[in-house]
Amino acid sequence: MRALDVIIAEHGNMWRVTRALGTLAARLGERPEADDLHTVELAADYLDGFSERYHHPKETDLLFARIRRRSNEAAEVIERLERDHEMSPLQIGRIRDLARATPPSDVDGLATLVAEIDTFTARLEEHMRVEEEVTFPLARRVLTPDDWREVDAAFAAHVDPLGDPGVDGDIALLRARLTQLLPAPDGLGGHRDAVVIELPRREARTRGTLLEVSALVCRYGRIEALHGVDLKVGAGELVALVGANGAGKTTLLRTISGVQPAAAGVVRFGGEDITRMAADARVRAGIAQVPEGRQVFQPMSIEDNLVMGAYTRPAAEIRDGIEEVYDLFPILRERRKLPAGTLSGGQQQMLAVGRAMMSKPKLLLLDEPSMGLAPLIVEEIFRIVKMLKAAGITILLVEQNARAALAVADHAYVLETGSVTLEGPGPELLRNDDVRRAYLGM
Ligand SMILES: Nc1ncnc2c1ncn2[C@@H]1O[C@H](COP(=O)(O)OP(=O)(O)OP(=O)(O)O)[C@@H](O)[C@H]1O
Ligand SMILES: [Mg+2]
Asked: Which of the residue ranges 197-201, 305-309, 327-331 would you say has the lowest mean pLDDT?
């Protein structure tokens, strides 16, 4: 029955698209923004390329066909769903053609497009609802194990590009636009109560070490915030650091980037002792920090924010660096002249990452990049983190969203009130009962 989970996940993405189209339609009827028609086109391309070519045909040919073979109960409903499947490519085609051909000044043309979008989204949402409420329960009852084997195999074999973290091009742009159109944050993240976790045996890792922190102590006045922390990050690794509020995660990152002095202990980077090295020299050496709360310069343009991140690089390289960041985050290129303060939270996080990338870092320190962002944007941020790792950048990631962080981490550390209490491969910590109780709310 795994196919049903796959279908539901794909419905989730289709819902996001129909919701976003709804927002766009409302805006097109009143005060369209510059990218709106293009976004409609991208959404139509996605629906045409994925839903119409893969999702719907598989439902018709396999799932619905099996249900029909086993039961007459919902014959009429299924016929209606199949008719929807036949109709919807035509509707999407019309929407795309209108979005492409209508000039933003053509009020009547826009009204026609808005009407098409409204009919289409209402029909698709109703279609998904009926499928999930009527046909899925029926399928669960009447399909045989052999049926499921076949149906499951077919649905397991394809990937919804919108749910694929590695995707780029138009789909990545569509994702970025969708994050702008969907509703605001709904609060995420793990449990933040202080907890004590029993100390397990440390396991050795074999990869070449890029960063090594040993017996690090850090104080604010008389308060000791870090009590002798040991931590290693191998070259090319993505290492996650999780822990409750006030555990010292930010302090540890700031000590590594050099903005916070170490009271005792050693920080080594690429084998060299950098414990006393100034912060800007560490940037030159290849350490870049993306601070908690993003901290972009709001009144300054997006492009100028990026230029500021390049202060360690020769002027001749800055243009190339900017273009690289724009390739990574197309939405920043589109808005480059605008004040950074006009960006959404997710986009500001992209800008903060982009600014750090301008120094060509070997090691990126990310402090709670998903904080306060809506689920779809959090996915986007994690997609970016994975993309950076794939590009060979070593990453130390502090995250409140422990589940997501542990899932992507090669290795992870749990920090409790200034001490490391647990470490291990990310997926292993994800299965650890103490971690599940303390950070995953299970
Ligand atoms: N500038 C400061 N002066 C004094 N104490 C500080 C300062 N910054 C942090 N602390 C204290 O150091 C400890 C660690 O704080 P830190 O900000 O590093 O925690 P954190 O794990 O990043 O927490 P959060 O999840 O809230 O970001 C806390 O007890 C905090 O109150
Ligand atoms: Mg912090």
From this structure: 197-201
Host H or E run for residue 415: strand 411-416
Looking at 164, 181, 198, the residue that finishes a domain is 181
CATH at 163: 1.20.120.520
Mean pLDDT of the chain, nearest integer = 86
pTM of the model: 0.61
**Does 198 have pLDDT greater than 60?**
no
- Give dist(CA 252, CA 248) in Å, integer: 6
Report how far residue 328's alpha carbon sits from residue 323's, in angstroms, rounded to the nearest whole number: 9
Q: Are 210 and 395 in contact (CB under 8 A)?
A: no
Q: Verify that 107 and 228 share a domain, yes or no.
A: no
Q: In whole angstroms, what is the distance from residue 371 CA to residue 346 CA?
A: 9
**Measured between alpha carbons, how far is 264 from 253 in angstroms, rounded to an integer?**
15
Domain span holding position 311 = 209-439
| Ligand minimally distant from the alpha carbon of residue 189 | 1
Same domain for 398 and 332, yes or no, is yes
| Spacing, Cα 395 to ligand 1 middle (Å) | 21
The CA 220 to ligand 1 mean position distance, Å, reads: 9
List the beta bridge partners of residue 217.
227, 264
Q: Whose CA is nearest to atom 24 of ligand 1?
A: 245
- Pocket of ligand 1 from Cβ distances under 6 Å: 220, 223, 225, 243, 245-251, 292
How many distinct helices (H) and strands (E) make up the chain? 19, 10
**Cβ-contact 377, 345 below 8 angstroms:** yes
What residue owns the CA closest to ligand 1's atom 2?
A: 220
Q: Which two tokens stand for residue 76?
A: 């009429």
